[in-house]
Amino acid sequence: MTSAPPAAPHPASLRATARIRATADGRGGTALPLLAGEGPLALRRTRGEDTEAGVMLVGAMSAPLGGDHLTVEAEAGPGARLAVRSAAATLALPGRTAEPARYDVRLSLAGGAAVRWLPEPLVSVRGSDLRATTRAELAPTARLLLREEQVLGRSAEPPGLLRSRLTVTRDGRPLLDQELSCGPGAPGGWDGPAVTAGHRALGQLLVVDPRFAQDPPRAAVLGEFAAATPLAGPAVLVTALAPDALRLRELLDGAMRTYGW
Description:
Blueprint (H helix, E strand, L loop, with lengths): L14 E10 L5 E7 L4 E7 L5 E7 L9 E8 L4 E6 L3 E3 L8 E9 L4 E5 L3 E3 L4 E10 L4 E10 L8 E10 L2 E10 L18 E8 L11 E4 L2 E5 L4 E8 L2 H15 L2
Parallel strand pairs: 1-5, 4-6, 5-8, 6-9, 7-10, 8-11, 9-12, 10-12, 11-13
Antiparallel strand pairs: 1-2, 3-4, 12-15, 13-14, 15-18, 16-17, 17-18
Protein name: Urease accessory protein UreD
Organism: Streptomyces katrae
Family: Belongs to the UreD family.
């Protein structure tokens, strides 16, 4: 008799990084001297508006799964203009390990740079565990338009565990640092009236613009579950809750027309 072959080990968790570097080309436009993706993080050049360079983030495979660690790094040099979008929603999926998945975004904006970060929603699938972090560092004269959208579960399913954090510094000083946890294992009351109030879609729009130093935006209610809050700096944060991703996008698009560029 021959013994059965040993079971194949689980494949190693995925590690992948996508890197973007935008620089002013000296002719009034923006060049992309670095555009490099790995694994599920594929990058494609697209047509931007006016003088900006456009980049599309294309998911080349299912990710992130439990244990995966994905990173996107984008650097905008002095005077560069960059717009980054994604081709489809990102699904946080259960993996073969109990380890949480990680999805990190790192943005660096030099003086006079302008970045529009406009990905499609992040969907927290039942059984998943994702830690998402976004960190942006801005020079005093940089501009940032950043949209984040999160959907808690697919149609008719409960969400996984989603922990997200957004940290922004300007001229080396903290501008915004906030964290949110939703789903099974999150602090009690995450779906109560003080957090999501039972809504399945939540998002925010952050606009940092030096022009707000002279003409600061005012606090405003933009809907039953949407509000604009001026920050202690030339910035405004719009937060919104909605029953679904479509309504959430409508709320944030309206805010973008009001505060964006």
